[in-house]
Amino acid sequence: MTVHTFDFDLTMLHLNAKWAFTTRRVNHDDVAGLDPAVALGIAGDLVLCEIIEINQHQKIQLASGRASTSYLGDKVVLCIGDRYAPDQFEGAARITASGADLLAGGGVVGTMEHAHARMVEPTKLRPIALLTDRAGDVINIARYSLREREIPDHVTVIGVFGASMNAGKTTAAVSLAHGLSRAGFSVAGVKATGTGAFSDFNAFEDAGVSAMDFTDAGMPTTYRMPMDRIEKGFETLVGTAATNGADIVVVEIADGVFQQETQEILAGSKIRDRLDAILFATPDALGAVGGTRVLADYGLKPFAMSGKLTQSPLAMMEAKIATGIPQLSREDLCTPASVMAVTRPILRTPNVSLNTTVEEMTAA
């Protein structure tokens, strides 16, 4: 292919541009050129943009793991991608030279299609060029995906689903992983679907649990990705965690049970087939009842519930009466005795060190 030339200093690109979280696996030395044909970009392609109007997202989550305050004129390297977020934006992986929208602070750019009423306009960008390699090929983060792996039979995989966005899934998933780690297991956290951002990733690591997400499998977001690619990403992430020594992998599934990919996962997928159990997060008792009925329609029942529901003793009481399913708060999930009381039956290979009674763990 013809290598495109463009009036922009590549040295300045490396030194001064802000590289977003979604680009964190990219080898910067691979960038050798810029292609101004931005409208030809597809999901996952790297694009250099200029911030021309600061609105909803006022910071960029950097590849280094910190948030950087945005300024007019900032040059940022982002991934083209779709987004699904009922509480924020729905957007398409589509940009033009005349403009684009920052769909997510983790580094996803596209065109906003729908917005929650409380959202202000998305931060506006001027796409400058797609990033290319020495052969002139546009660089897509898929080329930096982890090597495909299978999931060993001995590994326990626990899925964390939610009634909706912001139901408390990440807190539940991280707390569960932390509690199991404290109980003596080697645990890893995986975000299998969603939009590239460092908040969930960092939350697992803050809890002392190694983490990976779908961006490690070469996807800036999973919205509108083919299910077979999401399934391969799931297998690669969990398989990699197992290769790194994990006995248990806690897998968070983004958004709620009505989200497109989540419904496909629940209805019948390699992801559903490999889950040993489900923890369900919900904001309230009604969500607990509705969520369990939706899961029951798929032939599934969570071993426990958590989420924002557990901030209210009365809501927990209502949910327990209505569903009969144990309710576990963040503190419960972080406590080895309480978390083992509900997870011991689902573990594929109980750790020898866990051949103790709940009373012994409590005393410890």
Provide a compact summary of the structure:
By secondary structure, the chain is of the alpha/beta class. It contains 11 helices and 17 strands.
What does this structure look like?
The chain is an alpha/beta fold and 364 residues long. 28% of the residues lie in helices and 23% in strands. The chain is built from eleven helices and 17 strands. A six-stranded parallel sheet has the order 14-13-15-12-16-17, with helices on both faces. Helix 7 packs parallel to helix 8. The chain is globular and about 60 Å long. Mean pLDDT is 92; it is low at 1-5 and 352-364.
What's the main sheet like? 6 strands, parallel
Protein structure class: alpha/beta
Poorly predicted segments: 1-5, 352-364
The H-and-E topology, N to C, reads as HEEEEEEEEEEEEHEHEHEHHEHEHHHH
* Secondary structure: helix percent: 25-40%
3D shape = globular
Overall pLDDT? 92
State Rg: 21 Å
Determine the N-to-C terminus distance: 65 Å
Q: Count of helical segments?
A: 11
Order of adjacent strands in the largest pleated sheet: 14-13-15-12-16-17
The total count of strands amounts to 17
Estimate the strand proportion. 15-25%
